[in-house]
Amino acid sequence: MGELNKKVVIVGGGITGLAAAFYMQKEAREKGLPLDVLLVEATNRLGGKIQTIRRSGFIIERGPDSFLIRKKSFGILAEDLGIEKELVRNSTGQAYILLNKTLHPIPPGSVMGIPTQLGPFVTSGLFTLGGKLRAAGDLFLPRSGIKEDQSLGVFFRRRFGSEVVENLIEPLLSGIYAGDLDKLSLNSTFPQFKEVEEENRSLILGMKKTTPKKVPQKEGYGAKREGVFHTFRNGLETVVEALEEQLEKNSVMKNVRVNQIDKAGEKTVLTLNNGQTIEADAVIMTTAHEVVRKLFKPHGLLTELQDMPSTTVATVAMAFPEESIVQDREGTGFLVSRNSDYAITACTWTNRKWPTTTPDGKVLIRSYVGRSGDESIVSLSDSDIEQIVLTDLRKVMEIKEDPEFTIVSRWKEGMPQYVVGHRERLEAARVEIAKQFPNVKLAGASYEGVGLPDCINQGKAAMEEVLEALF
Ligand code: FAD
């Protein structure tokens, strides 16, 4: 570390912080920049929400299990790390919506719940005749003309009515955010739907135009198509291990928390929980926004982040011997409609979707519990959660004996919610912080996309901004 080098501190060692550190060191090496990068992580491990457990031949993800291939940054990172050969694609198959006690196939041709083929919608058991007729109203309704941000619920209910929203669109979309459709911002989550309405008026006709035809009717949604997700053969944590290995020596501090942030002239001073202080020329904050808000509160900054809630969820992975499960349904899993009396919100038949995760002769099932406004289940004991999940699963499949083992992973305030007005709130926060701390950047899941590729993009963008400001 050179005396005269510029110093950049990255706070938080999740995928955002790791990507920022990796690419910043790469740039510094390639361009010969006099730069020291230090990543500070509060826990004793890197990866943040990416956590893989490898146990008895199973590969179990506590948090995220894969990423969308279409969003390129993760694949590029894998190539940059030389681990792209370890990537595996998901197996596709029928996915269902659980409504009351029935698993209904997701109608073929539905794109994020929006019909692009009318036949399968008309025959689907997910909706009443009245619900179907109301949804067809989309074909005739004018554009809303609403310019300002609105909730996904308001937007979709206007076009399709409540039934299609609650029994199909909501489970599909809110699965990504564990959120409440009536609060989530259209502009910050799925702005493409607003554009489709603006351009085509009808969402059905607009989505039909942009969606490839020939989804096989018989096998249903997603069948016979290529999987659209990637993970690594040995679990998502492969990327964290590669990043940790390739980050420069002495550029990571684990088990130390940033407790305070102050200004000293042009520099930013970070105080750690071990009493140490670090002077930085620039800082990239990649922790959840709640942590950022608390750190800048003494400076009277970032109060608007207070209006940004997060949802608490848990994943529950259960391992069984094959013979103890009778699964007469083909497919990869199901999402649960809020209109049904279940604690689980989603379930993946992981051994089918990701065959590399499960040894021969075994079954791996991963369920989700906790959703916006209904999170108390997550604070129950592991064994209580296990029993509740088993009771729910037994309503839809025969489970002859309890699992060989169960792993419950809690994510307290783990899902940031982009509620209506998110973009404006974020913009105001950035303007405000830039006035007092021009070289402090905010990046990560709380801001511009929760998906892993979005986080990588944000880490990269923040490091580019910092380099631009410093050199
Ligand atoms: P984090 O991973 O939360 O990292 C922040 C880091 O900051 C943590 O390591 C934390 O310990 C550290 N930190 C906090 N405070 C301090 C401090 N004061 N000082 C120093 N360090 C601190 N996305 C997908 O693309 N695909 C999926 O399949 C998917 N599934 C998901 C399933 C679950 C259950 C959850 C919770 C999320 C899922 N996501 C998924 C979203 C994705 O996992 C996250 O958005 C992403 O991992 C967030 O990365 P991050 O680096 O922004 O934050």
Automatic annotation (TrEMBL):
Ranges where the Amine oxidase domain occurs: 15-467
The UniProt keywords, alphabetically, are:
Cytoplasm, FAD, Flavoprotein, Heme biosynthesis, Oxidoreductase
Catalytic activity as recorded in UniProt:
coproporphyrinogen III + 3 O2 = coproporphyrin III + 3 H2O2
Protein name (Swiss-Prot/TrEMBL): Coproporphyrinogen III oxidase
Gene encoding the protein = hemY
Task: List the Gene Ontology MF annotations in alphabetical order.
Answer: oxygen-dependent protoporphyrinogen oxidase activity
Q: Give the Enzyme Commission number.
A: 1.3.3.15
The superkingdom listed in its UniProt entry is Bacteria
UniProt cross-references to InterPro entries, sorted A to Z = Amino_oxidase, FAD/NAD-bd_sf, Protoporphyrinogen_oxidase, Zeta_carotene_desat/Oxidored
Function as written in the Swiss-Prot or TrEMBL entry: Involved in coproporphyrin-dependent heme b biosynthesis. Catalyzes the oxidation of coproporphyrinogen III to coproporphyrin III.
The scientific name of the source species is Sporosarcina siberiensis
A single Pfam family it belongs to is Amino_oxidase
Transmembrane parts of this sequence: none
NCBIfam families xref list: PRK11883.1-5, proto_IX_ox
What this protein needs as a cofactor is: FAD
